[in-house]
Fold this sequence. Notes:
119 residues; mainly beta; two-stranded antiparallel ribbon; two-stranded antiparallel sheet
Amino acid sequence: SSGGVILLEFPLKLESEIHLTDGGSSFQSFVADFMRKNSLTLGLSQSKADVKAKTVVGPLDLEGISVDRGLTLDGVGDGFSGVEVTSFDLSDSDAEAVKVRAAVEFVSPGRVGVADLGE
């Protein structure tokens, strides 16, 4: 309790769904910048969020929350290292073309936080 206010702490699991416009071209640009730059800003403007949470005290549903904020992210930039190839496949290749399918894993140096998203 702080000044007559009871503070509750409880775990919160967040899931999100993002709808891409323009065939995803903006997202493709974001991914390219994330891989090349040391820092970048992800802008959320004129956006609305719906929150549907299950809490220990019951459901919490909030709809149409305005979001207008830029989030600065650490990008991979020049620190792109520690890449591990987890699978490599040439089985779709034929006499006309070598077709490579590979999966890689790497640890992103970026940290993401969300605070003060707007009113």
